[in-house]
Design brief:
Elements (H helix, E strand, L loop, with lengths): L7 E7 L2 E6 L2 E7 L4 H17 L6 E5 L4 E5 L6 H7 L4 H16 L2 E2 L7 E4 L2 E4 L5 E2 L6 H5 L7 H9 L6 H4 L4 H15 L2
Length: 191
């Protein structure tokens, strides 16, 4: 029960993170326990991201006295799941560059790891509600874009995270072809 609303736990997403349900609608519940600073960072991050224009799950309610948040639950695949199966659609790169632009204008950085984004009706949603002070070296085009393609860097990433690698797909493009594809994407969508 949170703010006189009863939620039923229907699944676990990790330590202190649950999928809950109320009136046949699923929600994401995060219990920060005694971690008041993390709870406050989450709520502050949500407000900053919402104001920036970055597509994020809606925060429905929070209980400051218990350090609990209830947010929209985004089912489905992450960008990483999609990338493991097939190349990303160009519109996903356009969205990533738009998010990068919003973050830069808001003077904060977000983590462009592809597991931090889910696809909802073919649009990307950024999941972590945390931001850092803006640092150009953590921008999408300088740090993470290389793992948004099936590149050598993504293969290393997959192996480090114990995810199966499609070796045939990994060897279809030379490094020069991959670099060209990345450069063209940066030129086309950088704002």
């Amino acid at each position: 029960e949170i703010k006189r609303k009863v939620f039923q736990v229907v699944g676990s997403l990790g330590k202190r993170t649950r999928i809950v349900e109320r009136k046949k609608q699923q929600y994401f519940l995060k219990d920060f326990g005694n971690e008041t600073k993390q709870f406050e960072d989450y709520v502050d991050g949500y407000n900053k991201l919402k104001m920036s224009g970055i597509n994020i799950p809606k925060l429905y309610m929070y209980d400051k006295s218990r350090n609990i948040v209830i947010a929209e639950y985004i089912p489905g695949k992450t960008v990483l799941d999609e990338l493991v199966e097939k190349d990303l659609k160009e519109r996903h790169f356009e969205e990533a560059f738009t998010f990068n632009y919003y973050a830069r204008k808001g003077k904060f950085s977000i983590d462009f790891d592809p597991k931090n984004f889910k696809l909802l009706k073919e649009k990307m949603v950024y999941l972590p509600m945390t931001t850092d002070k803006y640092n150009d070296k953590w921008s999408f085009e300088k740090n993470h874009i290389v793992i948004w393609f099936y590149s050598r860097e993504l293969v290393k990433y997959l192996k480090n995270n114990l995810i199966d690698v499609d070796t045939e797909r990994a060897n279809t493009k030379s490094q020069a072809e991959m670099n060209k594809q990345i450069a063209l994407m940066v030129v086309k969508y950088y704002k």
